Prior knowledge:
The protein has 193 residues and is mostly beta strands. It contains 2 helices and 14 strands; from the N terminus they run H-E-E-E-E-E-E-E-E-E-H-E-E-E-E-E. 13% of the residues lie in helices and 41% in strands.
Amino acid sequence: MKKLKMLFAVAIITASFAFVQGPQVPEFKMVPMLVNADGSLGKLEKQVAEVKTKTKGFSYGASVVTFVNILGEHSPVQIDPDKAQFMVKLPDADTDPETAWNLTKVIPAKKSRELELAQSAAVMASAFGGKGKSVKRDDVPLEYEKVEPGVYKFKPTVPLVPGTEYALQNTISGATSNTTIFCFGTTGTAPKK
């Protein structure tokens, strides 16, 4: 009987610690984590990607595209598009989470993925009156929920597309010659184009 009471007391104490502990939070600032179904946190693919430029088109329609080059055609991290949730610890409690991150579709390329940052008229095209065009990225709007000061859980406000590659880009530090982005792909089959 004493053993049973002791076992019961240990079970109650353990359950109370689990209840009081609260949700897990990321260990490092500005490193978004995947929120798994059980509430645990999982890593996203972390890439130190190179910012490059290339010319698209010819003559008057030519433009220079600045993009982030991500190695590999597909991310090893694959998630259910309907269950995409993330958590991030911001630099401080006063940082607005809505201005800190962009979630964007990336463009598959040969042995890599590309995240377009900007597009402008090429030098020769601008000399002859060409203006280039703006980049129309597939940014996904996000909604944030405060977990504790400076820590936010966030998710897309629109459904993610199955079989598609995405990247989370830190907008606070901006794009430099080498920028860190966090990537994942969605499970399922991509719609036909």
